[in-house]
Amino acid sequence: MQIYSIEFTKIPDLPKTVCCIGFFDGLHKGHQLLLKTTLEEARKKHLPSGAILFDPDPWTLFHPDEEMDHLTPIEKREAMFQEAGIDILYIMHFTKEFAALTYEDFHELLFDMHVQALVCGTDFHYASHNSGSIHTLKAQERIEIIAIDPLMEDQIEKISSSKIEKEIEAGRIEEANASLGYMYSIDGTIRHGFQRGSKILNIPTANLEPDSLFTLPAIGVYAGYMKLKNSYYPAMINIGFNPTFGNTHKSIEAHVLDFDQDLYGKKVSFLFVQKIRPEHKFDSIEALKTQLKQDIETTRQILAKKSIQDWSSVINLL
Ligand SMILES: Cc1cc2nc3c(=O)[nH]c(=O)nc-3n(C[C@H](O)[C@H](O)[C@H](O)COP(=O)(O)O)c2cc1C
Ligand SMILES: Nc1ncnc2c1ncn2[C@@H]1O[C@H](COP(=O)(O)OP(=O)(O)O)[C@@H](O)[C@H]1O
């Protein structure tokens, strides 16, 4: 996959393409439908497939001092587009000037990028004050527009990144995973903690430092997996402040079941399946240990319900 970082004032010489366009945070089932349509149309037209996305998130323009978390920070999104088989990724640099373009200017930009057909949701909006819509896109005649209705969850609510984000933040992982079509995950590197896991509890817990700003599930204990290289290991994951020990910063740590390897410095992902319980302050270390042993059993029961092969990866869905 080729990646172009694009300034709207300096469009390089680009090939003709069939492109989808959007923010694509999470690459959820609705996004995956857009991608699938793009790949099919590109194949039919014998053109490369493309995806146009925007970075940084427009929200950051209006809140310059705040950082914004994402379901799939841009590096992860890039990897997922590559996995899905998109040929070219266009990352449009989102600036105040870019945000001020009229919808006619925006169409000119797409012509200059040699987009032949554009796949987008019927609810897609763009250009200054969100003045561009599916109607303005269809009113221009130089680019073929393929509009896809938003996918619905249980025919009630449309699947959206913001809905999934709220579910993750509330610990409703099963609902989020149903809309994503894959297991929500956070990528990072294993770092040293206080070594209470192996020294005091006899249950080692690997501490994850996320690679970028991921949306974090609610504080609590989860059944899930750790992915190391291309293998998935059953794990129970805790997100919180370890109140029994009174930590001052939030940690993300996992005890990997039936596993005994040094993980320090390793790049891994923690994947979330289901919340087991809230994080508690225990009266004694013994009480915490008893609970952790119970959590191991609960994790085994939850993970036994669905095999790892039954979880689709994005590529399987396309
Ligand atoms: C699955 C799991 C559940 C946990 N639940 C709690 C909890 O309810 N309360 C708590 O204070 N700490 C909890 N912990 C955190 C332990 O206290 C923590 O792993 C221990 O302090 C070791 O930290 P260290 O890796 O920094 O040495 C949990 C850890 C895991 C992996
Ligand atoms: N089953 C396991 N689950 C998690 N970590 C393990 C496991 N087996 C060995 N380890 C190693 O032990 C470390 C965690 O032990 P712990 O005493 O909790 O130390 P720390 O406080 O530095 O995380 C992990 O980073 C990893 O290198």
Automatic annotation (TrEMBL):
Entries under Pfam families matching the protein: FAD_syn, Flavokinase
Protein name (database record): Riboflavin biosynthesis protein
Top-level class of the enzyme under EC nomenclature: transferase
An MF annotation (GO) of this entry: FMN adenylyltransferase activity
Assigned EC number: 2.7.1.26, 2.7.7.2
Catalytic activity: riboflavin + ATP = FMN + ADP + H(+); FMN + ATP + H(+) = FAD + diphosphate
Domain Riboflavin kinase as annotated: residue spans: 179-304
Pathway in which this enzyme or protein is active: Cofactor biosynthesis; FAD biosynthesis; FAD from FMN: step 1/1; Cofactor biosynthesis; FMN biosynthesis; FMN from riboflavin (ATP route): step 1/1
Family: Belongs to the ribF family.
Record's keyword annotation contains Transmembrane: no
Highest taxon listed in the record's lineage: Bacteria
Gene Ontology terms: biological process: FAD biosynthetic process; FMN biosynthetic process; riboflavin biosynthetic process
Cited function: Catalyzes the phosphorylation of riboflavin to FMN followed by the adenylation of FMN to FAD.
Organism: Dubosiella newyorkensis
Keywords per UniProt: ATP-binding, FAD, Flavoprotein, FMN, Kinase, Multifunctional enzyme, Nucleotide-binding, Nucleotidyltransferase, Transferase
